[in-house]
Amino acid sequence: MTKRIIKTLFPLFLGMSLLFIGNGLVVSSLSAMLKSKEISEIAIGLINSCLFVGAILSTLTSHVIVSKVGHVRAFAIFSALFAVASLMYEISLNLYFWAFLRMCLGYCYYALLVVIESWLNERAKDKIRSRILAFYEGVFYISFGLGILIMALELSQTQVFIISAAFIMLSSIPLNLIKTKEPRLPERESVSLPKIFNIAPLALTGSFIAGILINGFFTMASIFILSQNFSLSQASYFMAFAMIGGFVSQFFMGGFSDKFGRRMAIITSCLIGLTASITFLFANGNLNMLYLIAFFLGSGIFCLYALSLARANDMLTHKSQSIQVGRTLLFSYSFGSLVASSIMGVMMSLFGAAGFIYVYIVLLIILLGFAITQKTVPLKHRQTYNPYTIKTTIIDELKINDEISDIKAKTKA
After folding, report:
1. Residues 259-274: pLDDT tens digits?
2. Which residues contact 159 (CB under 8 A, 6 or more apart)?
3. Alpha carbon distances (Å) from 161 to 77, 82, 150, 168
4. Residue 403: what pLDDT?
5. pLDDT tens, 190-223?
6. Hey, what CATH class is 1-182 in?
7. 365-372: long-range contacts (C-beta < 8 A, 24 or more apart)?
8. Where in the chain is the domain with CATH 1.20.1250.20?
9. Based on the number of CB atoms within 10 Å of its own CB, is 141 exposed (0-12), middle (13-18) or buried (19 or more)?
10. Which of 215, 323, 343, 409 has its CA 20 to 30 A from that of 306?
11. Burial class of residue 190, CB neighbours in 10 A (0-12, 13-18, 19+)
């Protein structure tokens, strides 16, 4: 059944792969472009933060547009706006204008994720859900990594924007080939940080720090490498090695956390990431060593959000709380992502390239210390680990709200 569903949804997976390639290219290239124009690290960090301002605004308002025009048209609208925003960078070098466009990219990208995941929710039933999500995760890592690797071609600014816009515009074509009922939109629920902190403090802290470390890497890692006088192609390989490490660790940490608990898995991830971060300080510009360390850094940090979400679910006494907890952790992760680039920009302005690593060392020590003080959840209370990061939270919300809508419809009938 899994192969049949994947085959049926092939146009959707093709469309999302094109979207992830285009997004990976434009998101990763902008920081390098600004660095080449001798823009300060602080300014680059602030501009990158606007991406997540748009993301937060998208989670609050994009569903209104989708509900009015439908999912297929919404995908076409947001992909078109995404592509236009990518091309508009060529008009002006004004930093305020670039920050505004960065915000537009974040808004459109997260809106497109909601549309894509609505379709997956429609088809990913319980029995095959984990396998569909695993395939989805594989498409994300491979496609986003390909987008990053395109940087290695050292294209001109104009070429980067044209190629990324082309991928993004092409992504809407396969979706229009799907013949399926458009999914319902979920009802929005409130987010309560204090309430969730009381229930699962380690999960909330872990998701916030994960937002800083993961998205800080995507937006500022190229600056870290370029600041050491390496080329843009070498920066792209560095980021690709980290993504490979993150992809591999998702599956290793699943079995490890199911056996030893999420707390121990978070501690282990922190130790791996912390060891890699400290080792960066002794790499002495050895490029091959930097690639190897990047692999282990990715292995340590890229599974932190999934582990935090699993920890939160283990702590719940009522399953009905899972959606509110998931959305609160997603908000915490998004807020961490919002401040990540600014924090790293300031640190790199003060301490040079090493400032990027100092952020990882300090935050991983904080999370490690906090995790050590928490208790391990007994085996009988642990739920199955799901390595599919943020995407699972959105899909879970869509799935449960669909079930609620069905119950309401049957009650009215």
Report:
1. 777 888 899 999 999 9
2. none
3. 19, 11, 12, 11
4. 44
5. 555 565 566 668 888 898 999 999 989 988 898 9
6. mainly alpha
7. 365/274, 366/209, 367/205, 367/206, 367/209, 367/266, 367/270, 367/304, 368/267, 368/270, 368/271, 368/274, 370/201, 370/202, 370/205, 371/202, 371/206, 371/263, 371/266, 371/267, 371/270, 372/267
8. 1-182, 186-413
9. middle
10. 343
11. exposed
Total residue length of the chain: 413
Are 78 and 111 contacting, i.e. CB atoms less than 8 angstroms apart? Answer: yes
DSSP string, 142-205: HHHHHHHHHGGG---HHHHHHHHHHHHHHTHHHHTT---PPPPPPPP----HHHHHHH-HHHHH
- CA-to-CA distance for 287 and 317, rounded, in angstroms? 49
Amino acid at 125: K
Q: pTM of the entire structure?
A: 0.78
DSSP reduced 3-state for 284: coil
Return the residue matching tokens 């204090």.
194
Let me know if domain 186-413 sits in CATH 3.40.50.1820: no
Residue 183's nearest CA partner among 244, 136, 120 is 120
Report the distance separating Cα 31 and Cα 25, nearest Å: 11
- Dmax over Cα atoms in the chain, in whole Å? 71
User: Percentage helix, strand, coil, to 5, in the chain?
Assistant: 85, 0, 15
Q: Cα-atom radius of gyration of the chain, to the nearest Å?
A: 21
CB-based contacts of 268: which residues, under 8 Å, 6+ apart?
253, 256
